[in-house]
Specification:
The chain is α/β, with parallel strands linked by helices and about 270 residues long. The protein has helices at about 25-35, 55-60, 60-65, 80-90, 110-125, 180-195, 215-230, 235-250, 260-265, and strands at about 5-10, 35-45, 70-75, 100-105, 105-110, 140, 160, 200, 205.
Length: about 270
């Protein structure tokens, strides 16, 4: 079994001027994941990049940069989904079994947790209907102390996608002007076509809440964004997808017992 994740796609959205005592979050994340990832792609929001992230990363990680392990892409017209799609185009897979890690600077997984996700993907076990054999869409994490419905589904906060099942799909860039939730949309798209589901990886990855962020308000906006695109999918697709994820979450003691589909549609 391959011992490293093939690609990691990171986003650097709002890096302020470089402060040696407070380096950009993306640098801390790279240091954490570097030993377990073959190539790291960092998509930078050019207009708000006061730290000159590409140069900062070249000087901070000279060996990896020289070897081509770290690649930066600067976007002038930035968006979450657009950044991920640029990362996907820069990580063209050489085989169907390659994996791509979508990960936020806000999370702090251990290397063991990332490898747990990787191993589960390649074993091919999933609670799903079988279409192309014992395959899955990838592996996702759940988070320590986070039981909100939008935290109990595969999120690009920390999800490992299989390259094979992503062929022909892209993250929905129209959602960049809303609250994102491109990850849930992608999961529904893939499930609607393949009936494949992800496997659950670690359940206690640390996810820090940024200062000044109202978690409940953010969660409500995320649910609203999902509700707005639910009509694009068949009811049987929605029920099957969210019910399966509910079973997984409840088996790990996550959530408040309300089915995910109902919780997401609820205005409570």
């Amino acid at each position: 079994m391959e011992k490293q994740i093939d690609y990691a796609i990171l986003r650097a959205y709002n890096n302020k001027a470089y402060d040696p005592k407070n380096p950009p979050d993306v640098a801390n994340l790279i240091s954490k994941i570097d030993p377990v990832v073959k190539k790291i792609i960092v998509v930078v929001n050019g207009p708000q990049d006061g730290a000159n992230t590409p140069e900062f990363l070249r000087s901070t990680f000279p060996t990896q940069s020289k070897e081509g392990k770290i690649e930066t892409i600067v976007l002038e017209n930035y968006g979450w989904s657009k950044a991920l799609n640029e990362g996907l185009r820069a990580s063209m897979p050489k085989s169907d079994y390659e994996t791509r890690l979508m990960i936020s600077n806000e999370v702090n997984p251990t290397q063991e947790q990332l490898m747990e996700m990787h191993e589960k993907v390649l074993k091919g076990n999933a609670i799903s209907s079988v279409v192309y054999g014992l395959f899955n869409t990838g592996s996702y994490a759940l988070f320590e102390g986070r039981d909100e419905p939008t935290c109990l589904v595969p999120r690009n906060t920390c999800t490992l996608w299989r390259s094979d099942v992503m062929k022909g799909f892209a993250f929905n860039e129209k959602l960049d002007s809303q609250m994102g939730m491109e990850d849930v949309y992608m999961g529904l798209q893939i499930y609607a076509k393949t009936k494949l589901l992800p496997v659950l990886g670690p359940t206690n990855v640390k996810w820090a809440v940024r200062q000044g962020v109202n978690s409940q308000e953010k969660h409500n906006k995320e649910r609203e964004t999902i509700r707005n695109y639910l009509p694009q999918f068949r009811d049987d697709t929605l029920n099957a997808y969210f019910n399966a994820l509910s079973v997984i979450a409840l088996s790990k003691g996550k959530g408040n017992g309300m089915p995910l589909f109902r919780a997401i549609k609820s205005y409570e």
